[in-house]
Amino acid sequence: MNMRALTGTDDLPRRTFTVKEVERMGEVGLIREGERVELLGGELIPMNAKGSRHETLKFEIVLRWGRTCPRDMVFIPETTFRLAADTFLEPDFLVFPRSIGISDIRGPNVLLAVELSDSSLGYDLGPKALVYAHFGVRELWVIDAIALKIHVHRDPAEGRYRSITPWGAEDLVAPAFAPSEFALRLADFDLRD
Fold this sequence. Notes:
Mean pLDDT: 89
Domain Putative restriction endonuclease: 31-185
CATH architecture: Alpha-Beta Complex
Organism: Kaistia hirudinis
Low-confidence stretches: none
Pfam family, one: Uma2
GO molecular function: endonuclease activity
Keywords: Endonuclease, Hydrolase, Nuclease
Structural class: alpha+beta
């Protein structure tokens, strides 16, 4: 996968990094604690600060899924999702079978990845969705926390999702691969800031 095409870099020389190098940068303080970055094809991508709507929605989803998550499933918030030696993402949620250890999570065994977006919608729907598709994540939800829409991406092939469907706040959206207990209707949440 040509990550430069995704990130829009020009012909200037670049120094790329590995996941291990970025982790070491964090250990020695080159990347500050709490500083949010992702690594796409070796290039560091600084992440926007999370807004209050993002955090409120995340809280509501944690409460809901914490009550309904089947015992044989795991949903994990804000984990480092290591996809390759030079690529990691920081999804808001991953859902996968409990039988898979966290260190063994790969794109194809993730049942649902969720990105909450209040200030990074273009990135989440564009380059980031392409990375998820490239690594075989079967279903990605990009939730627009401002417009209250769930953009459901399914059927990854050739580095893209062949099916992308937007759903409104009143729609009950059920995952295709994760259990039905992970279905969401955004209108059910109290999202007052």
